[in-house]
Design goal:
Blueprint (H helix, E strand, L loop, with lengths): L1 H13 L1 E2 L23 E9 L7 E9 L5 E8 L6 E6 L2 E6 H4 L1 E3 L3 E4 L5 E5 L10 E6 L4 E5 L1 E3 L17
Parallel strand pairs: 2-12
Antiparallel strand pairs: 1-8, 2-3, 3-8, 3-9, 4-7, 4-10, 5-6, 5-9, 10-11
């Protein structure tokens, strides 16, 4: 339990509590189409960067909680991939934790932005899936959001995104 509390406090340092959602920039510097969300939960970007030479793929999500209550992620699954594990950097060392044990809580009116140097998911590709792949994120209130995945080649760059003040002005 103490480990979960420490992880939650570390996670809060990665979550930017802002009252708005900004138009993000892509890796090439262009604006990524984006609608401001006034209520509820939104998984706005799911990027999976394939692993090179047998290494696990890395998944990065941006989740915005525009609701009035905190939301905890209970489970995550993606078509054609094994169950993901959370990788969290702490004092220069990566810790591996199951999604359920990671205690990923997104405070109300805040976002969870996963990034390579801090917090991301790792998972193995298990089978070739034709067509669009989807990822599902289950929350503690029973909400399950299923969204399309953007696949990137090994070494690919994920979608740059960040919420900011000014979107609702």
């Amino acid at each position: 339990m103490a480990n979960q509390a420490c992880f939650l406090l570390s996670l809060l340092g990665l979550i930017v509590a802002t009252p708005a959602a900004a138009a993000p920039m892509s890796a090439t510097g262009g604006i990524v189409p984006h609608e401001a969300m006034l209520s509820g939960l939104s998984v706005e970007h799911v990027d999976i960067v394939a692993g090179a030479q047998g290494t696990p793929a890395r998944a990065y999500l941006t989740i915005y909680n525009a609701d009035t209550a905190d939301k905890r992620i209970m489970a995550i699954s993606a078509d054609g991939f094994s169950t993901p594990v959370v990788k969290r950097r702490d004092s220069g060392v990566y810790e591996t934790i199951t999604v359920a044990d990671a205690f990923l809580v997104i405070p109300r009116r805040a976002e969870l932005f996963m990034a390579a140097g801090s917090l991301f998911l790792e998972m193995d590709e298990t089978l070739g899936v034709a067509g669009e792949r989807m990822m599902s994120v289950a929350f503690d209130d029973g909400t399950i959001l299923t969204v399309p995945v953007t696949l990137h080649p090994p070494g690919g760059v994920r979608t740059a995104h960040h919420h900011g003040i000014g979107d609702f002005e």
